[in-house]
Amino acid sequence: MSPFNSGALRLLDCRRRIVKEHCDVLTREKKDRRLLSHVPDASGVRSHRDRRRGNGGGRGPEDFGAYIREDAAGRRYLVDYEVTVRVEKDRIKARALDISTTGMLLHAELGCDESLLTEGTTLSLSFEITPGTLPEGYEMKIKDLGATVVRSFHKENAEGLFIGVQFADTLAEFANKKRGRYMLGLASFFLFVVVFVIIMMRAESVLYFRFNKTLYLYSIIAATLLLSRYLFGALYRPMKVDPDFTPGVTIIIPCFNEETWIDRTILCAINQDYPPEQLEVIVVDDHSTDHSCEVIQKTIDSLTASDQLFHTDQRIRWIRQPQNMGKREAMARGAELSTKPLLVFVDSDSFLDPYAVRNLVQPFKDEKMGGVSGRTDVANTYTNSLTKMQSVRYYIAFRIMKAAEGYFDAVTCLSGPLSCYRKDLVLAHKEAWLHQTFLGQKATFGDDRSMTNFILRGHRTTYQDTAICSTIVPNTHRMFLRQQMRWKRSWLRESLIAARYMWKKEPFAAIFFYMGFLVPIIAPIIVLYNVFYVPIMYRIVPLGFFVGMFLMAALMSLAQLFLRRSTTWIYGLWFCIYYELVLLWQMPVAWFTFWKSNWGTRPTPADVGPQKGGKMKP
Fold first, then answer.
1. Rg (alpha carbons) of the chain, rounded to whole number
2. pLDDT digit string (tens) for 180-239?
3. 569-588 burial, b for 16+ CB within 10 Å, e for fewer?
4. Residue 460, helix vs strand vs coil
5. For residue 452, what is the enclosing H or E element?
6. Phi first, then psi: what are they for 373, rounded to 5°?
7. Sign of torsion, CA 231 232 233 234?
8. Does an H or E element contain 114, and which?
C-alpha cells in the first residue's frame, strides 16, 4: 500500500470517528402511509380510532387514557435485529424489519421450510432489543418469547418469506415478568435505605447544630428540600383527558438554522389527535442563514398536496422575519398572528407526541390557570454517555422536580420545548417581555422563565406529565456547557425577580422556592469549605460530606430505575459527579456575568451582524 493511500485511509477513518461521535442516535418510527395518521376526520370518511382497534370518541377519561396507551403500544419502529425463530424442533434464522411492543415483521432466511410459518402457527423468538431502537426502558435480551404468525407473504422483487407475528405477551409484560419486578423490588429497597440514611444524617446535623450553625443549617435545608421534592413529586397526578374539552390551540414554532430537525418538528405538530378545526400551526423563521426556509416550505407543500380531508392549507403557515430579531420576537410574532385562545410554544428541535396537545390543555378547565408545562424527554438518549446522563437528568427534573411544583400549581419555569399559555395573558405582557432588561442589558435568553414569571404573578401554572415531547440535547461537552451557563444566568435573573412575589403563593410552594434559590447559590462555598478548608485546617477527611453527596446521587439514579426501569439509571450517578466537578462552578461565573446576552449555542441579533457565511463564531 502506498504512503498516500495509507494516509488517505487514516484520514477517512478519522472522519468516520468524528461523524460517529457527533451523529445522534434516535428511534426510527415507521411512517404511516398517511402523513396525518392521527388527525381525527370530522367528515366521518375515515376514523383513525376505528382503524386502531377502538373508538376514543364519546368515551370517558379512563377509556380515553386506555386508548392512548393502546395506540402507543402499537407504534412500529424500523429495526435490524437478528432473530432466532423456533418452531417445534426446528430453528430458523430471520431478521426483524420493524417492531412494536405487540409484534414484529420478520424476513425469514432463504431456503427455510415455509410450511412451518403459515398463519396461525405458534413459535418462540429470541433476539436483542438494542439501545436506541425502541423508546427508553425496552432495551433488553429476549429469549423464547411466545408469538403467533398472523400473516405470511412474499414481496415483489424481494426474495424470501415475510412474516408478521403477534407476541403472546407485550414487551412491557415480558419485561415485567423477566426483570421488571426484580428491578422494582431492588430499587424500592435501596430507595428506602438511601432515604433512611439521609434522614439519620440530618438528625445528626440537628444534634451537632450548635458546633457549626451555618454548615449544619445548610445541610438540613438541602436535605429537606430534596426529600420534599421527591415526596410531592410522588404525590403528583396529572389531569385525566376529557375528550370533549378541546379549546382552540395555536402551535407556534420559532426557528433559526434548524434545517436538520424542523421537518420532523412540523409534522409532529400538525399530526395531533385533536379536532383539526381547533388546531393551527405557525412557523416563524428568524431569518435563518441555512436551508431551514426551503425545508419548511417543502414540508408544508407536501402536507397540503397529500391532504384531502383536513384543510391543512388553512391550518398551517409560516413567515420569515425580515432580519434576525431573536427568539422572543419570533414567539411574539406568532402570538400576534394566532386566531386561537391558547398558545403552545414548541422548540424547533422538539417533537410532539400525537396526544401532547390533547393532554396539555386539560388544566385550562381551571379559569385561574395561566400556563402549563409538558414533559420533555431526550430524543437522542443513546448517542453517547453525555446524552444518557442528560436523559436521566431531564426525566427527574420533570417527573419529580417540576411535578412537585405542579402539585401546588406553582411551576416556576414552563419549559421551552413544550408549554402552553393563555393568549390574552401573553399579549398583555408582550411588550414588557420583549423589552425586558436586567442590569441595563437586554434579556435575550430565558424566554420561558421570563414569561412564566409574568404569568405566575397573578395566575396558576402547572405541569402535565402526560403531555410529552422529545428534544435533541447537546451531544458534545462544549455545547452542553454553553447551554448550562446560559440556563444558570437566566435562572439567577428570573429567580431574583420571582423572589419578589413568591411569598404570596401557597406557603409550601413559597418555602420550597426560597430554599431552592438559596441552596444552589451557597453550594460552591460549602463544597470549598468541606473539600479544602476542613482537611487543611482540621486534618480530617470530611467523610460525611462525601457520603451525603453519594446518597443524593443514588437517590436520583434509583428514582430513575424505580419509575422508568431503564438501563440509563446508572448515569444519574455520573451526572451528580459531573455536576460537582464541573457544573457547580459555573454558578460563581454566572454571578458576575449577568450582563452577557449571547446564547452560546445559537447566535443572538448582536452576534449575527459580524458573522460571515452565516456561521456562529466559536
1. 26
2. 677 788 888 889 999 999 888 878 777 777 777 777 888 888 889 999 999 999 999 999
3. bebbbbbbebbbeebeebbe
4. strand
5. helix 447-456
6. -105, 135
7. positive
8. none
